[in-house]
Each structure stands twice: as structure tokens, then as C-alpha cells.
Design goal:
It is a single chain. The chain is mainly alpha-helical and 140 residues long. The protein has 2 domains: 17-94; 96-140, no CATH class. It has helices at 2-9, 14-91; strands at residues 102-105, 114-116, 129-130, 138-139. Strand 1 (102-105) and strand 2 (114-116) form a beta hairpin. The strands form 2 sheets. The chain has a two-stranded antiparallel sheet.
Amino acid sequence: MGGILALALGGFFGSASRQFNSVLIDVQTWISSRFLGFQDFITAPRDIVSLRQRNAELEAQVSQLQAQVIELQQRVNETDILAALVDFSRSNPESTYKAASVIGYDPSPFLHYIIINRGSERRHPARHARCDEPGLGWAH
């Protein structure tokens, strides 16, 4: 036993030791790669489930944001219409204006009538509506 130790310390087993270490490292690398592949195979379904759940959450968030965008676009359109009405009323101060909302349309293809929520029963005599710009109308 002492002789083998003396030969090892003297460097006589260096090439054999390097060869043995090289084979040992190759075996460890092969076992490690197989273990990691097996581990990925086992944990992949959990990853897929979590990815699908996250995808569903993100799709719900996208839908919510799209609904908010549509609502904000409608508000911008309403604001633009109201700004145009204010500009029109400022440019024509000689007339008086009452705000009314359109609550219906005449289905006739030949007549273009709208039904508003203001009228003669509210002490406004029946008049003809007229529009110069799209979305702007008044009675005269």
C-alpha cells in the first residue's frame, strides 16, 4: 500500500489518473443530461398549465382594455360633438338653444325625421330642424 502511494505521489499514475477522470466526467455528464431531461419531462405539464392560465389572464385583460378604449373613443366623439355645438352657439348668439337627445328615427326611406326628447308638450312649439354640419341641428 505504501508503494502505490509513493508511485502516485511521484506522478507515475498521472496518465492513468487523467484517463480515469476523463471517463468519470463523461459518465457524470451523460447521467446529468438524462436526469435534467427527465426532470423537464416531469415538470413540463405544470409549466404548460401555468402558461395557459397566464395566457387566459392576459386575454381577459386585453378584452377589458379594448372595452375601455371603445368607451373612451365614444366619449371623445361625444366631446367633439359638444365642442362643435358650443362653438356654433357662440358664433350665433342671437338664437336660443335647448339641448335634446335623439330617442328615435323615422324608419321611412323617403323622410328623414328624428324623434327627440324635447317638444311641444314641454312648451317648445313644433318647428322644423335644420342641420348645416353633421351632428349640428337647430330649430327655426
